[in-house]
Recover the amino acids of this structure.
């Protein structure tokens, strides 16, 4: 490996000269080439196993990165094709080709950051809390986090089977809202057993939410995309609510969990 302050080039590559030409074609003047170990480390953070092991996660997209830089999340390293004008010790300027190597997106957007996973916050029994029972789709979880931010829900509790909130696809869908919502993974059954708040759950045969006066506080439980709220959790829900169907044929089986969450949160805040 040849190094100086301006670049690094792998002399063991099949065509180091070509690699060097590509690097200078797309790189900022003071960029460096990432080592294989750095690329491997970043790529591994796409898996939950390694995120938990390293206590770090990857964020992409200028908006999300800027949101987290302004939050309590601690930056470990920023890789960008243009400077963010932050502490030089935390920033590495790289080429667009290297950004593509470490990105989890089809079309990388100028930067990728690694932040430290914070300690799991204690749940405070106040206000409105959203609880997720085995939500598996990253896009759904990311959208629900964003909805919590929009409707002023400061706490989101998730069953241990729910998709990891630090999954790159989840983070992309939050558009930075993860910076303003406290997320806890816990034994959902135990949490619902011990809470003193009223527990609402979305069920097909529940009471019409449009005919019900909802409080400003409580726990709103949303279930799995395919199976809804599990039987064990359902036994702990003491207020069943539903979103009525208005279609003439009544043929739609259910709503997407994120869509249903949006409608119910809107009713809680109305």
């Amino acid at each position: 490996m040849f190094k100086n302050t301006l670049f690094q080039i792998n002399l063991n590559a099949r065509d180091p000269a070509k690699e060097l030409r590509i690097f200078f074609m797309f790189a900022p003047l003071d960029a460096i080439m990432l080592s294989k170990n750095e690329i491997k480390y970043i790529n591994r953070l796409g898996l939950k196993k390694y995120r938990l092991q390293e206590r770090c996660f990857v964020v992409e997209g200028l908006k999300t990165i800027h949101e987290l830089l302004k939050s309590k999340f601690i930056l470990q390293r920023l890789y960008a094709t243009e400077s963010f004008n932050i502490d030089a010790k935390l920033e590495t300027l790289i080429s667009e080709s290297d950004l593509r190597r470490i990105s989890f997106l089809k079309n990388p957007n100028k930067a990728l950051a690694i932040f430290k996973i914070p300690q799991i916050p204690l749940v405070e029994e106040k206000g409105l809390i959203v609880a997720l029972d085995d939500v598996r789709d990253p896009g759904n979880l990311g959208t629900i986090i964003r909805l919590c931010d929009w409707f002023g829900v400061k706490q989101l509790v998730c069953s241990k089977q729910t998709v990891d909130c630090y999954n790159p696809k989840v983070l992309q869908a939050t558009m930075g809202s993860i910076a303003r919502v406290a997320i806890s993974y816990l034994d959902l059954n135990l949490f619902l057993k011990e809470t003193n708040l009223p527990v609402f759950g979305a069920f097909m045969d529940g009471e019409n939410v449009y005919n019900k006066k909802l409080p400003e506080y409580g726990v709103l439980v949303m279930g799995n995309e395919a199976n809804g709220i599990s039987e064990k959790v359902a036994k702990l829900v003491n207020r069943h609510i539903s979103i009525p169907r208005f279609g003439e044929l009544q043929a739609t089986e259910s709503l997407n969990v994120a869509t249903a969450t949006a409608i119910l949160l809107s009713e809680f805040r109305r």
